[in-house]
Amino acid sequence: MKRLILCRHGESEYNAKRIIQGHIDTDLTPAGVVQARLAGEELKKFSIQRVFSSDLKRAFRTAQIIADVLDMDITKDKRIREMSFGEWEGRTYDHIFETDYQTFQNWLKNPVACPLPYQEDIENFRSRLESFIKDILKLPEDNILIVAHGGSIQGIICILTGIGLENLWALKHTNTGISVLETDGRKTEIKLLNYSKHLETEKRTETVIL
Q: N or C: which end of the chain has fewer CB within 10 A?
């Protein structure tokens, strides 16, 4: 059985401004850097043998900080970057709520049946994640860390558990939230979902980091 440890990136510049990112390549905020380092300390407990990261800056920088704590190298893979959200990339949530609230709600309920205008084709999204998963399952290492995005992490969970990408947004991952799957490619168990206890330290030190 493989153990896949999935970690979302730390807070990005657009997360802080409540702007939809997708493929827009923003960096971490100072708070996101702290979150990544706290996640790295937490991930020491997981006996990680390999680290993979999305190629987008917010995920890769998170992975670099974590890998520095773990004293490991990183393999960058663009197949686990976030979904492209088409015309909605760069828009604020406040503006979307004011102008396209129902479209947004329909998409959250079922992104397969109700895609956003010009978003990445859902089958392309599925295909690149499935390709990545297939290659991961061939590796000799058993404990593999994947640092990516809410959409791609939740997509991996949907695919491996068989719940379908229509449930993509029913799952939630906070910044540096950690999930753990145990899988042989046929059967998958969720052992941990969006664990974020390490961020309690961040809350106690936020007056120092902001």
A: C
Contacts of 93 (CB under 8 A, 6+ apart): 18, 19, 20
User: Of 106, 81, 80, 101, whose CA–CA distance to 91 is shortest?
Assistant: 101
- Assess whether 95 carries a catalytic annotation: no
pTM for the model: 0.94
- Is position 9 annotated as part of the catalytic site? yes
Report the distance separating Cα 78 and Cα 21, nearest Å: 16
The C-alpha atoms of residue 89 and residue 24 are separated, in whole angstroms, by 7
Tens of pLDDT along the chain (210 residues) come to 999 999 999 999 999 999 999 999 999 999 999 999 999 999 999 999 999 999 999 999 999 999 999 999 999 999 999 999 999 999 999 999 999 999 999 999 999 999 999 999 999 999 999 999 999 999 999 999 999 999 999 999 999 999 999 999 999 999 999 999 999 989 999 999 999 999 986 654 443 333
Separation between Cα atoms, residue 167 and residue 160, nearest integer Å? 13
